[in-house]
Write a structure and sequence with these properties.
Blueprint lengths: L11 E3 L6 E3 L4 E6 L4 E5 L6 E6 L3 H10 L9
Antiparallel strand pairs: 1-2, 3-4, 4-5
The protein binds zinc ion.
């Protein structure tokens, strides 16, 4: 599952392996590919990979900020 980089920390996530439910902020960091800026996020209960996010390009970051003024993302 691809997580939305901007909003997944505030979303309700459910683990398909063990049925853990919680906010994206509770997920554990898994493998991170520096070359691709892709990071796996793991379930805090069973440690299976739940999804991944890809770091946004500068243009995507600016676009999102323009379209979502004042919206917090959980990264602050
Ligand atoms: Zn799990």
């Amino acid at each position: 599952m691809r997580l939305n980089y901007f909003t997944f920390k505030k979303e309700d996530i459910e683990c398909s392996h063990c049925s853990w439910k919680g906010k994206g902020t509770a997920l554990c960091y898994g493998d991170f590919s520096e070359a691709h800026a892709i990071c796996d996020m793991n379930c805090p209960s069973c440690f299976e990979t739940i999804g991944f996010w890809a770091g946004p390009l500068k243009e995507e970051l600016e676009k999102w900020n323009r379209e979502n003024p004042g919206v917090t993302t959980g990264w602050e």
